[in-house]
Amino acid sequence: GQQLNQSPQSMFIQEGEDVSMNCTSSSIFNTWLWYKQDPGEGPVLLIALYKAGELTSNGRLTAQFGITRKDSFLNISASIPSDVGIYFCAGQQTSGSRLTFGEGTQLTVNP
Amino acid sequence: DAEITQSPRHKITETGRQVTLACHQTWNHNNMFWYRQDLGHGLRLIHYSYGVQDTNKGEVSDGYSVSRSNTEDLPLTLESAASSQTSVYFCASSRDRGDSIEKLFFGSGTQLSVL
């Protein structure tokens, strides 16, 4: 199946720092989604992106749909301890097709 | 509040045993999915269903089966558990197949250990 390469695999940052992570593919996707998984819980949708070049924010989180439609980026500003978790990107190639998930970025925030 | 519930949260079983993981949602969603989460692989789709009596294989369906006898439930059965099936299993649901965006709502997961 299609593969999404997510990087970095893990990040260790200090509270207050900004965070950037990305997701890339060799294939074109029509939709990009970003999920967050808290420890011991299931993933929760953070942001959905529908168009190439689109920039969408959700509080301190900002995600972008890459112009080539083969990548997406997630930024977290002024990180706080509750940002800890695994962040997954997911792509949908066509309407009705199944989501493909990246491997996740494990974020640790040190107070 | 509507929700999606998985049970049990933790399960230990022996190789060769049949195991069933339960998933129940109260959103009246047509679409339900089972994923497994393993280090280095992210979330991989096992089986999914678009409605009652409908089931479909995902990318890692070997050794697993599902049945959909009503809208609310999609139990996942491991016919003969193997150590390679030790994983965290997530059930998810979404509203309509017609949605252009598949916004999934996930349960809290079942940690399965096969010894």
**Termini distance of chain A?**
39 Å
Secondary structural class of chain A:
mainly beta
- Kindly report the greatest chain-chain contact and the residue count on each side: A-B, 23 and 24 residues
What multimeric state do the chains show?
A: heterodimer
How many β-strand stretches of chain B?
11
The count of DSSP E runs of length 2 or more, i.e. the number of strands of chain A, is 11
The ordered H/E elements of chain B are EEEEEEEEEEE
Distance between the termini of chain B: 37 Å
Number of helices of chain B: 0
Main beta sheet of chain A, described?
A: 6 strands, mixed
Rg over alpha carbons of chain A: 13 Å
* Rg result of chain B: 13 Å
Helix and strand composition category of chain B: mainly beta
Q: Largest beta sheet of chain B, briefly? A: 7 strands, mixed
Uncertain segments of chain B of ≥5 residues (pLDDT<50)? Answer: none
Mean pLDDT of chain A: 93
Question: How helical, in percent, are the residues of chain A?
Answer: under 10%
By DSSP (H or I, 4+ residues per run), the number of helices of chain A equals 0
